[in-house]
Design brief:
heterodimer, A: 116 residues, mainly beta, seven-stranded mixed β-sheet, four-stranded antiparallel β-sheet, B: 116 residues, six-stranded mixed β-sheet
């Protein structure tokens, strides 16, 4: 199993450009999520999905869009990149916890994005 | 709102010395707590988790953590560290999200630096 695969690993964008960060998992997990990691701030949840066709916002959703058309894929779109979106982005997947705290999340390797 | 606080941003330690990484949580309901490790340029990997039962939880690579409800703490310990333990460590709490699922809220991380 590949686990959680993110592409690309590195990306440089100009302010105002758009792009899509790809995330795919092969574990048949229902729950997928996107985090951004910034120095001194840990990981913050951007958006998450509990299954195909169902998404919801996390702590820092502004400037990002998501959709979930299949169980395997959960792309993150930056509509108009800004320097404040320079960060490392992680995709994670897990079985839905259903309120029982069994959310062991499996993480991808990350995408390092720089917006200039 | 549930949250976690990691009291130390950096912990330097010599090889073979013991180490404790501190984590405090705030919650008014049952908690489920996790420690994740991030090695350089990699994604996050689960070290251990507390869901219920014994308050002393053992994880991978010789790490353990103790859940202390009265002190609202979940400190991570290892009796003798190795150079290979150099990494960033994140404490996380599972909170109820939308659609009756869990989502993880992370602390800001503690960078463990092991010196020879």
């Amino acid at each position: 199993n590949a686990g959680v695969t993110q592409t690309p690993k590195f990306q440089v964008l100009k302010t105002g450009q758009s792009m899509t960060l790809q995330c795919a998992q092969d574990m048949n997990h229902e729950y997928m999520s996107w985090y951004r990691q910034d120095p001194g701030m840990g990981l913050r949840l951007i958006h998450y999905s509990v299954g195909a066709g169902i998404t919801d916002q996390g702590e820092v959703p502004n400037g990002y869009n998501v959709s979930r058309s299949t169980t395997e894929d959960f792309p993150l779109r930056l509509l108009s990149a800004a320097p404040s979106q320079t960060s490392v982005y992680f995709c994670a997947s897990s079985f839905t916890g259903l309120g029982q705290g069994k959310t062991e999340a499996f993480f991808g390797q990350g995408t390092r994005l720089t917006v200039v | 709102a549930q949250s976690v606080t990691q009291l130390d941003s950096q912990v330097p330690v010599f090889e073979e010395a013991p180490v404790e990484l501190r984590c405090n949580y705030s919650s008014s309901v049952s908690v489920y707590l996790f420690w994740y490790v991030q090695y350089p340029n990699q994604g996050l990997q689960l070290l251990l988790k507390y869901l219920s039962g014994s308050t002393l939880v053992k994880g991978i690579n010789g790490f353990e953590a103790e859940f202390n409800k009265s002190q609202t703490s979940f400190h991570l310990r290892k009796p003798s560290v190795h150079i290979s333990d150099t990494a960033e460590y994140f404490c996380a709490v599972s909170v109820m999200g939308g659609y009756n699922t869990d989502k993880l809220i992370f602390g800001t991380g503690t960078r463990l630096q092991v010196f020879p």
